[in-house]
């Protein structure tokens, strides 16, 4: 009886503890939900108030209260439409830090436009709407840029009582959003400004002909239109680096700059760890093919692959691809446990080097996550065979696993898979299409079973597509490159 009572007491206590834990979790979830709704409300209110204050500044051409109320209604409606779009097609964006950046850009563009409207000598055609459209396109997406541009142009047209600027600013803004996708370096921004200027001239010419304006008026406004395009590009060049740094956004321009193989860090990799350098080039090709197959960010994957092993520069000869042959194996002089520590340290070294060179956080994340919590199987087996009985705690599997974290994004996961597949491919004795497909499937399957893909949002269908892309890429390598030296094929597995 006493035992039964004690059991009931324990069950009640456990139930009470679990219920209290559940309540805490529910309260935490409610807090997170409330915080998210508050952020959305605060952002929407801030943008509405900012736009309303700007457009209702003294000096507007009409002071009729009904028109002012109508303008405020348009502001509220515009922000509401933008919010609905983000909630439907980009819900995670509403809870992210760049949401505040978007609000700042919208209000700033409205302020710049308002200043130009209030200057009597400057025509409304000079409003640099392409400044906003190019920036939003570079920092976010061209579609979002087009929507915001159109909404702001409508507000400008209503505020100025000048419907003639509606087609001109719309065309200039849309051209800016479109040309941003072709900007690969910062100097290309001047070309974007030129394209916007040309489109402004054509739009002004068309509107001038429809309005039956004089040739001198059309030519004068055309000069202002060209000036608007170049002014927009100058503003973008001035603020883009600061926005990238402060808000932690990595644009394609920044990634392409980092892809220059003559940069000091990659140049050091070429000279000090040539084997690792060629390994990263191959990993980059594989990873890019895998990213293209599932619609991931292939540029980020390629650049991330270039830098994923930069930590090996610190101790290059402890990694087999730099050793040259099995006779030059530095690990024969140290214990398996110490070898494991040395191999794992290339992640920490890589992260520190990336931070010292101010690489973007997305690249640092790939460096840190590209091994996940994987097991360094070669040295673990070696430790088990040697069987250090005095220090059994050193043979624990946890001492031979990478510290993690596991890949948190599709891009980091693709680099991890490409890294493992390329390392295994180098020691594949028979290289034909069937053996490659089998080996690629085996390597990726092992990662999946080991739980290394549990924390990224790759689906099984996407993993299958990545497997096929890797197999096709490696099959192409077999047809264009000879086999590796025989002593490399005999090696059991890659170190690192």
TrEMBL record:
<feature type="domain" description="HD">
    <location>
        <begin position="276"/>
        <end position="424"/>
    </location>
</feature>
<dbReference type="InterPro" id="IPR006674">
    <property type="entry name" value="HD_domain"/>
</dbReference>
<dbReference type="InterPro" id="IPR052722">
    <property type="entry name" value="PgpH_phosphodiesterase"/>
</dbReference>
<feature type="transmembrane region" description="Helical">
    <location>
        <begin position="98"/>
        <end position="119"/>
    </location>
</feature>
<feature type="transmembrane region" description="Helical">
    <location>
        <begin position="223"/>
        <end position="243"/>
    </location>
</feature>
<feature type="transmembrane region" description="Helical">
    <location>
        <begin position="41"/>
        <end position="59"/>
    </location>
</feature>
<dbReference type="InterPro" id="IPR003607">
    <property type="entry name" value="HD/PDEase_dom"/>
</dbReference>
<dbReference type="InterPro" id="IPR011621">
    <property type="entry name" value="Metal-dep_PHydrolase_7TM_intra"/>
</dbReference>
<protein>
    <submittedName>
        <fullName>HDIG domain-containing protein</fullName>
    </submittedName>
</protein>
<dbReference type="Pfam" id="PF07698">
    <property type="entry name" value="7TM-7TMR_HD"/>
</dbReference>
<dbReference type="Pfam" id="PF01966">
    <property type="entry name" value="HD"/>
</dbReference>
<feature type="transmembrane region" description="Helical">
    <location>
        <begin position="163"/>
        <end position="180"/>
    </location>
</feature>
<keyword id="KW-1133">Transmembrane helix</keyword>
<feature type="transmembrane region" description="Helical">
    <location>
        <begin position="125"/>
        <end position="156"/>
    </location>
</feature>
<feature type="transmembrane region" description="Helical">
    <location>
        <begin position="65"/>
        <end position="86"/>
    </location>
</feature>
<keyword id="KW-0812">Transmembrane</keyword>
<dbReference type="InterPro" id="IPR006675">
    <property type="entry name" value="HDIG_dom"/>
</dbReference>
<feature type="transmembrane region" description="Helical">
    <location>
        <begin position="192"/>
        <end position="211"/>
    </location>
</feature>
<keyword id="KW-0472">Membrane</keyword>
